[in-house]
Amino acid sequence: MPDGTPPRPARTLRTPEALHAAGLLPAGALAGAAAVAERYSIAVTPAVAALIDPADPADPIARQYIPDAAELVTAPHELEDPTADAPFTPVKGVVHRYPDRALLKPLLACPVYCRFCFRREAVGPDGGLLTEAELEDALAWFARTPEVREAILTGGDPLMLSPRRLGEILGRLAALPHIELLRIHSRVPVAAPGLVSEALAAALEAGKPLYLCVHANHAREFTPAAIGALGRLVRAGVVLLGQSVLLRGVNDSAGALEDLFRAMLRARVKPYYLHQLDPAPGTARFAVPVEEGRALLRRLRGRVTGLAWPTYVQERPAGGGKVPLGPEYPPAG
Predict the structure, then answer these.
(1) Residue ranges at the known binding site for [4Fe-4S] cluster
(2) Which residues are reported to carry the modification N6-(pyridoxal phosphate)lysine (predicted)?
(3) Which of these, 123, 272, 56, lies nearest to 183 by C-alpha position?
(4) CA 233 to each of CA 105, 206, 266, 295: distance values in angstroms, whole numbers, following the listed order
(5) What are 127-143's pLDDT values in tens digits?
(6) What is the mean pLDDT of residues 207-223?
(7) 65-86, pLDDT tens digit by residue?
(8) Which residues carry a binding-site annotation?
(9) Which residues make up the CATH 3.20.20.70 domain(s) of the chain?
(10) Which architecture characterizes domain 86-326 according to CATH?
(11) Which pTM does this prediction carry?
(12) Cβ atoms within 10 Å of 44's Cβ, excluding its own
């Protein structure tokens, strides 16, 4: 380009060399990023790359996605399986931690790979796609477990599936009399909004209430393209919820959280959960102490509408589930 700025990529960047060529990784960080790439997957979509300011070493979008050598340092408190999925897996692809709901992980591929992901040891471009037999076993488990009323598709990112395949899975689950709610967790609408086609939106019309939890951590992620993708989902009858992770250097200020939650509401996304960081290996640089998180939320009380207020939650160790963290206030009067 005439000003010497590297051109924005037309496809997903998956190697340190590609990130460097796009101007998103300095030469001095290549060796460290290459070491990280040997253990953890890398993916930065064109939509995400376009949001990164390469001139800002503290860019909050880059911090979420660009590999850093610090990822190879495991702190004493960090765990290989911080949410304890494994002990609660009755069949491959299913996690049953709560009595009335269960996760279905049909694949382990994502459009982008977050540097703080609690499943970072498992996700990757090979997809972790359930075979036909494994998917049948998983769906059969849902069919014979009537206490489960909510099926939650996660992974990986379920919206990476083809509309046909996703529609088939949702249809099979919705046909079970005891399944009352369907939920999907996804980063696709903000990280790869072009994947949210009319065909994909139509595939979500499963005949049962469907909630989509959009993972976003910074207001800048709600681009016009992302808002358009979310609008297609709303028109298909999908209820949109927002989930975020409290991250050092990304959204660890009252102003950043306020901007994020307001951006969600403008996009018709109800802030649902603000997660305390799960202690996955190599994620300590993102950690914000719980008391600091509580203080941030106290600063927001009265500044934002109650519609913008998520529940601040943390996973208990050993798969004990989520607990709300507050903040707490003295009773009135």
Answers:
(1) 110, 114, 117
(2) 322
(3) 272
(4) 21, 13, 15, 34
(5) 789 999 999 999 999 99
(6) 97
(7) 999 999 999 999 998 888 878 8
(8) 110, 114, 117
(9) 86-326
(10) Alpha-Beta Barrel (3.20)
(11) 0.94
(12) 28
